[in-house]
Amino acid sequence: MTDVEKLHETIQKLRYENSQLQRFKQVNQLMLNGLDAIMTSMHRSEVFARLFEVIGEILPCDQILIAHHNEEQSTVIPVCCSTEGMSFKPLRYTDLTNVFEETMNIFNVALIPGWKAHLGGWLPDANSVLIHPISTSQAKYIWLISDKHIGAFSKQYEDIFVSFSAFVANTLSHFEQRSLIRERETLLEERGRIEKSMIHQEKMAALGQLAAGVAHELNNPLGFINSNLASLQDYLGDISEFVSQAVKSSESMTALHKKMDMDYILTDTDDLIDESLEGIRRSTDIIANLKSFSHPDEKTRVNLELNAVIELALTIIRTQAKTVVDIDFTPCEAKPVIHVNANQLAQVFINIVTNAMQAMTDNNGRITITIVAEKTAVNCRIRDNGPGMPAAVAARIFDPFFTTKTVGMGTGLGLSISKAIIEKYGGELHLESSSAKGSCFLIRLPRIID
User: Fold this and answer.
1) Nearest Cα to Cα of residue 383 among 342, 421, 355, 413
2) CATH number of the domain that residue 90 is part of
3) What is the residue range of 378's domain?
C-alpha cells in the first residue's frame, strides 16, 4: 500500500469516527433534553408533549405519535400526538402485530398491506414511517414518527431514535415509580384527613345527641319558671289594687307609700316580669330550634319558607356571632317557598356564615343576608366585609378536605358538603365575588309556586 493510499484510508477512518462522534453528540443532547423534559413534568401527557418538542428539534419529521398498548383488551390507542385537534379510534393489536412487535423503518407505506384501513387513519399524510415499541415498568407504548416524503428516515436517523427510545423507556419507568410514590403519599394524607373527619363527625353526632337531651331536660324547669312568672304577674295586679286602696285608707299609709316609692316598684316589677317572660320565650325558641336541628331525620323534605330556615340557622349561630360580627337579615316580603330539608339547609347557612365570621380580622365585621325572589327561583346572597381570599384559594374552596385553617381547626368539608346539599335540591352554590372589600356567596334554589 502506497503512502497516498494509507493517507486516504486514514482520512476515511477519521471521517467515519467523526460521523460517529456527531451521532453520539446528537444522542447525548437528545437524552439530556429528554431527561430534563421528564424530570420537570408532573403528568404523563406533559412528559410526552415535551419529548415531542425535543425530538422535533433533533430529528426532523412531520408528525410524532405515541400509542398505548392495552394488553387486556388487545387494543392500541394514541395517547399523545404532536398534531393538535386530531381524534383517533382504537385499533386491534392483532391486526398490527406485523408492524408493532419490533422496530420498523417503513420506506413507503403504500407497500404495507392494509395500511390505509388501519394506521392510515392515524397518519393520513404519511408516506414514510418509523415505528418502535417501548415498554416501561407499568405500560407498553408504540412510537410512530412520520413524514410526507418517501424514504425520509435514514439508517443513522433510525439508530439515533432507537437509542433515544430505550433511554426514554428506562426514564419513564422511574417517572412512573415516582408517580406511584406521590400517589401513595397523597392517598395516605387523604386517609388521615378522612379519619380526622370521621372523628369530628362522631364528636358532632355525640354533641347533637347531648344537646337534644339537655334541651329536653331544660324544658321542664323553663316551664315551671314561665308558669310561676305568669302567676306572679297576675298576683301583681291584685297587689297593685290592694296598695292603691290601702293608700286611701290613712295618711300614714300614704306617707309610707310615698317614702317607699311604691309606684316605681310596682311599675318596675311589672317590667321585670315582662322581660323575664320574654327571656323564657326566647330560651324556649332556642331549645326548640336546637332540638329540630339535632333531629336525626335528614331525608325528609317539605315545603318551607326560606325566611324561616334562615331564621332557624341564625338563632343557632347568633350566640357566638354577637361578640364578633353584626348579622343583618331582612326577611323577603314575598315569602318564597322551597322544597328542602330544614336541618340540612340550615347547616349550609351555618357553614357559610361561620366561615365569614372566622375570616373577620377586626371588630367592625358585618354579614348581610339578602333574598331576591324570582318567578321560578330564589337567590340568596351572603355578603361579608372581610379581607376576601386570594384567587388560588377561591378556586379550591369547594374541594373536599381543602382548608386554610390550622390543623385541628377545620376539616375542609363544610363548603363541599354545602355545595352537595344545594345541588341535591336542584340549586346552585358558588362564590359570586371576592375582593379586599369582602366576599359574596350566592345560593340559588328552585321556588315552589302554589
Assistant:
1) 355
2) 3.30.450.40
3) 299-450
Distance CA 178, CA 136 (A): 13
DSSP H/E element including 314? helix 306-321
Q: Pick left, alpha or beta for residue 430 (phi over 0 → left; psi -120 to 50 → alpha; otherwise beta).
A: beta
Strand order in the sheet with 428-435: 325-329, 365-373, 377-384, 438-446, 428-435
| Dihedral of the alpha carbons of 329, 334, 339, 345, in degrees to the nearest 10 | 0
Q: Cell 379586599: give the residue.
A: 436
Percentages (nearest 5) of helix, strand, coil residues in the chain: 55, 20, 25
The per-residue pLDDT for range 276-303, each reduced to its tens digit, is 888 887 777 666 655 655 554 455 778 8
Count of structural domains within the chain: 2
Distance from C-alpha of 18 to C-alpha of 281, rounded to nearest angstrom: 99
Q: Checking DSSP bridges between strand 104-106 and strand 365-373, what pairing results, if any? A: unpaired
The number of helix segments (H) and strand segments (E) in the chain equals 10, 13
Asked if residue 200 is part of any domain, the answer here is no
Cβ-proximal residues to 9 (8 Å cutoff; 6+ apart), any chain:
1
- Cβ-contact 338, 445 below 8 angstroms: yes
Q: Report how far residue 298's alpha carbon sits from residue 288's, in angstroms, rounded to the nearest whole number.
A: 17
Q: How many CB atoms lie within 10 A of CB 250?
A: 10
Q: What is the pLDDT of residue 407?
A: 47
319-342 pLDDT, tens digit per residue, is: 666 667 888 898 988 889 998 888
Q: What is the CATH number of the domain that holds 444?
A: 3.30.565.10
Q: Which DSSP letter does residue 376 get?
A: S
Answer yes or no: is 279 within a domain. Answer: no
Residue labelled with grid coordinates 365585621: 365
Instruction: Give the H or E element holding residue 9.
Output: helix 3-39
Give which of 369, 383, 398, 384 is closest to 306, Cα–Cα. Answer: 369
CB 402 within 8 A of CB 412: yes
Distance CA 343, CA 300 (A): 10
pLDDT tens-place string over residues 73-84: 888 888 888 887
Cell triple for residue 340?
328542602
31: pLDDT confidence band, cut at 50, 70 and 90? low
Cell of 253: 299609709
For residue 208, pLDDT over 70 is answered with no
Q: CA–CA distance from 311 to each of 164, 219, 228, 330 (Å)?
A: 68, 21, 29, 10
Helix, strand, or coil (residue 311)? helix
Confirm whether 291 is domain-assigned.
Answer: no
Residue at a domain's end among 147, 163, 182: 182
